[in-house]
Amino acid sequence: MTTHPQGKYADFEGLREKAVALRRAGYSLRQIRDELKVFNNDILNQLVKGEPPPAWTKRPNAKDDLRAKARELRLQGWTYDQIEVELGCSRSSVSLWVRDLPRPARRPPSEQARLAARKRWEHQHAMRTEERAHAQATATQEIGSLTDRELFLMGVGLYWSEGAKAKGGSHRRVIFVNSDASMIRVFLAWLDLIGVERARWRFSVNIHESADVPAAESYWARQVGIEVHDLLKTSLKKHNPKTNRTNVGEGYHGCLRVAVLQSAGLHRQIEGWWNGIVLGSPPPSGKV
To answer: What pTM was estimated for this model as a whole?
Structure first.
């Protein structure tokens, strides 16, 4: 080997012995360079030639975990198609990661058909989801800000479809019950619009006794901007174990009941407003 002009690297074997020891102790190239005062990169690399770098010096690779999982699945007999679907990776990546591993046994045609159908369904599902989101966003922009008259008419229709109506000689009172927080917010905005004082608003929760009642009360209090202790007593519905209920899980909060005190007159007005909407609507075109 050609020595440094000052003879600094004449004892190459001695330096290599020290460099190898440092490498095996977990030193990086930079640390070895600083320790041995070897600032020639070519010589530094020769000193540690054949010694792998310590694991901590390797840059993390975001795909390392996926690669390891892909190899594990391949060893279990999974095909490229299955690994691609399971991990959401491209075919080229899967091929690169597992091409040195043995091929699994060929699957029966029925299994191949099921996998192909699953891939088609996932692709179509993703496209439908994107189309729905786009259509919803476009429709939202088409509405824009509501005028007072638009909100007024919508509130009348909302109450007449979802609110309590008088039957026979029963006491008339404005009561609106719904499980949809957005409908509750629109109804309250309507009450504000027609001048119903908030001091006359009363809220209570209706929910199955088997649900998480405190969580539901907290949820509805947040939705209408009040404290939980401002809610009236919660109405619990008896749970029938024979009923196959679908309104369960974390997303189930029961219903919120909005009652307006001293609202018999308002109820009569709503009836009149709805009749006005009906009479003011154009007749249907064509034969029914």
So the answer is: 0.55
